[in-house]
Amino acid sequence: MARFDLTRRRLLKLAAAAPVLTLPAAPALAQLGGPVAGGNTAHYRFSLGSMTLTVVSDGYLGLPVNALAVNASDTDVAAFLQAHYLSQNENYSHTNHLVIDTGSAVVLVDIGSGNRFMPTAGRLMDNLRSAGIDPASITHVVFTHAHPDHIWGIRDDFDEPLLPDAEYVIGGAEHDWWLQDGLASSVAPEDQQFVVGAVNSLTTEGVDWVRGMDGYEVVPGVRMIDSPGHTLNHMSIVLESDGKQLIALGDCMTHAYISVERPDWHSGRDIDGDMASATRKRLLDMAAADRIAVLGYHFPFPGVGHIMRDGDGYRFVPAMWTW
Questions:
Q1: Amino acid 27: pLDDT
Q2: How far lies 246's CA from each of 70, 134, 272, 314, in Å?
Q3: No. of helices (H) and no. of strands (E), the chain
Q4: Closest Cα to residue 94, out of 66, 56, 135?
Q5: Which end of the chain lies in a sparser environment, N or C, as judged by fewer CB atoms within 10 Å?
Q6: Closest to 49 measured CA to CA, from 233, 212, 310, 242
Q7: pTM
């Protein structure tokens, strides 16, 4: 089965097509000095009621900033990034996977991109082992959507399921959208590799898909909810244990500050920008009103925190890192 690796071409095309941000350069202090020998931890473990949760990194993606808010002016985006001490040249995007140990099941949310997307990602399996989690112990893999960094790692180098004994769950409508006849020829040429990669992943021999829907319970205490817009049938994952709740957002919010403080700004990867904005506003209101913790897949590692109201808007408050 053919494999395609054109994604970086699209990213470079995006970067070249947009004008350079216009504010004078300023130090991006939110991102400190570069890596040093020995590196940093790639997992973080905490509890939610009686569940044990572990955030495990698949690495990071270096993405163009001009895809952060395609319906906002370059000047406004540059001002926002500068005010938040963020780079105006690269969006350093983390990839935070959630492992949920309920005591009777071990659920992984999304499976990463493997070696098929960007060389800075594809580290999930090694980092699981470093966290003391045997990949073979994973009983369920639930997918938020079928973009490269969430599903392309489903196959090993022999095109066989990476976790052959796990149950694989995806929204039924998400599954069907990517497998519809003629989709690859109906999208822009630079998006065709996303379709081909999704089809290759969703048709992996040996994977029998469980079709989820809004409210579908993967295991007790872990359910899927509709959060459309980034893809038309994107799902988020809600955890509940002993009265405590957390939402694994997937990509319905892709940036810890822009998605939360400016939910009306559309990501360049949102298939339906208005729908994605409505989803963000709904989940932000729910998380703030009910004090539900959130996990952002692309938020700064480990990506866990809360949403607080800030005047007429919202703000992401990272959870306290504890030992």
A1: 56
A2: 29, 24, 25, 17
A3: 9, 14
A4: 56
A5: C
A6: 242
A7: 0.90
